[in-house]
Amino acid sequence: MSKAPPKEESSWLSVNETAQALGLHNNTVKRICPTKLPYMRVTDRGDRKYWYEDVNSYIESRMVRR
Questions:
Q1: 3-class DSSP state of 29
Q2: Domain boundaries in the chain?
Q3: How is domain 9-62 classified at the architecture level of CATH?
Q4: How far apart are CA 14 and CA 11, in angstroms?
Q5: Could you tell me the mean pLDDT of each successive run of 10 residues in the chain, 66 residues long?
Q6: Which of 26, 32, 22, 23 is nearest to 47 (CA)?
Q7: Which stretches of the chain are DSSP H helices?
Q8: Quick one: residue 27, left, alpha or beta (phi over 0 = left, psi -120 to 50 = alpha)?
Q9: CB–CB of 31/49 below 8 Å?
Q10: Which three-class secondary structure state does DSSP give residue 62?
Q11: Other Cβ atoms within 10 Å of 54 Cβ, number
């Protein structure tokens, strides 16, 4: 994940896609504080969608720099 795509429907990631990108379990992704990894609630069930750029930013913030 190096460059965020333009803002369109394909730029939103499901919980499963976000979990795969982060190398975490779906439930762990849901436990991340929304101020660190914001999401949007969609559908009547309240499914979460994560913006691709926010996921990129979260990954970069968690990287260890030497």
A1: helix
A2: 9-62
A3: Orthogonal Bundle (1.10)
A4: 10
A5: 50 95 96 96 93 94 82
A6: 26
A7: 15-22, 26-31, 52-62
A8: alpha
A9: no
A10: helix
A11: 18
